[in-house]
Each structure stands twice: as C-alpha cells, then as structure tokens.
Design brief:
By secondary structure, the chain is an all-beta fold. Helices cover 0% and strands 51% of the residues.
C-alpha cells in the first residue's frame, strides 16, 4: 500500500515562492498518475495540478497556470509542486494524491 507524506508548506508573502514535496513509499511510484489538490477554509477540495505516469505530461487548473509547476523524480519516489507568484487566494492545505491514496496535507499561507 502506498503512503504519501507532504512537506514544504509555510507562511509566505504575496509574490513569493514555495516548493512542496510529497514523498511516496512503495516500489511502483513511477506507474502512478499523481496530482496535487488544495482545500481552503470553508471550501471544497479542488484539483491543482497533475502529472501522468505514461509520459510525464502535466496539466493544471486555470488559476495556477504559468505560476505553478508540477514535477516528479521517479528515482527518489518524489512529487513536487513549485509555486511562484503566490497570491493570498492560494492559501490552503495542499494534498498530494495518487494510487487512491491521500497524504496528510501541508498548510500554505500567503499574506497580503
């Protein structure tokens, strides 16, 4: 069974950057289609970014296109989310998802 552990969240000013990481257990990480989601207070969890296992192609929700970059390192069983030009509306708990598994989340707070 896969386990996912996020890290890298924190408090940053608007316009700043953060890099989130998601460490995955298991020997078949490279076969998983991985995604980042986020959930702001009082809102539903929403999709942020995804990366396919087949060819490493990526896709994003419109609100983060051009600012966020999802990537993976299959040799290290790691998933990343580079977040630039952060906005207060990016404040949320960020979760990685794959193989029908969720991590525990990491808090990102962007101050104005």
């Amino acid at each position: 069974q896969v386990q996912l552990v996020e890290s890298g969240g924190g408090l940053v000013q608007a316009g700043g950057s953060l890099r989130l990481s998601c460490a995955a257990s298991g020997r078949t990480f490279s076969s998983y289609h991985m995604r980042w989601f986020r959930q702001a207070p009082g809102k539903e969890r929403e999709f942020v970014a995804g990366i396919r296992s087949s060819d490493g192609s990526t896709y994003y929700t419109d609100s983060v296109k051009g600012r966020f970059t999802i990537s993976r390192d299959n040799t290290k069983n790691m998933l990343y989310l580079q977040m630039n030009s952060l906005k207060p509306e990016d404040t949320a708990v960020y979760y990685c998802n794959g193989a029908n598994t969720w991590g525990q989340g990491t808090q990102v707070t962007v101050s104005s």
